[in-house]
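User: Sequence for Carbonic anhydrase below. Tokens please.
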Amino acid sequence: MQDVRESTANATWSRMLAGNRRFAEGKAEHPWQDAETRESLIDRQTPDAAVLACSDSRVPPEIIFDAGLGDLFTVRNAGHMVDDAAIASLEYAVAKLHVSLLVVLGHERCGAVAMASDGLDALLARATAEIEDSLAAAEAMDTLDERIAEDASIIMRQIGFSVWQAREAELEDAADYERVHIARTIEELVTRSEVIQSALAEERLMIVGARYQLESGKVEVLSF
Ligand SMILES: [Zn+2]
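Assistant: Structure tokens for Carbonic anhydrase:
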């Protein structure tokens, strides 16, 4: 059973990546979007995968994976943030719809990540303006995580942490911030959701991270 699940998840992911290749090459087939499919799905849905993605209008999962009706259970918000609504939706997909694959989909030139990066710069500038000596400066850096956690902006509290973590690891460009944020999103989901945790432990679920590239139309598969 466990092996079956794992191969189901892998097969689903391979199918999604094949769909993405078709899309990127301009050969999308737009499968399962006809009246017949719609009618066959009236009584129930059995999506293979759940996707947590950014709301960016250029990154609709069904289109970039060349999927159709009933294929993907998608949850989207700016910068694929992990909040109660996202967790509840994904838990529904895992526990009730029995998806075997969960894809966290970030993307190139994510405005939410850029906003968090700018916010972090502003926060740093404020912190440095407040202090006079170098000891206090070091202290201000030490408490930067607290400042991020207390920030008025939800995007800062959620994505600012990812940017900060990336910078701590001396990663400085936007693409790296996006990759770290995808990794942190997965980490958050696993930490905060017992449903996801046990599905992973029982090998009923596989989680993958991917970053969509606007220029090529392809998703970059991330390994953590
Ligand atoms: Zn985005």
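Residues 31 and 93 are 22 Å apart (CA to CA).
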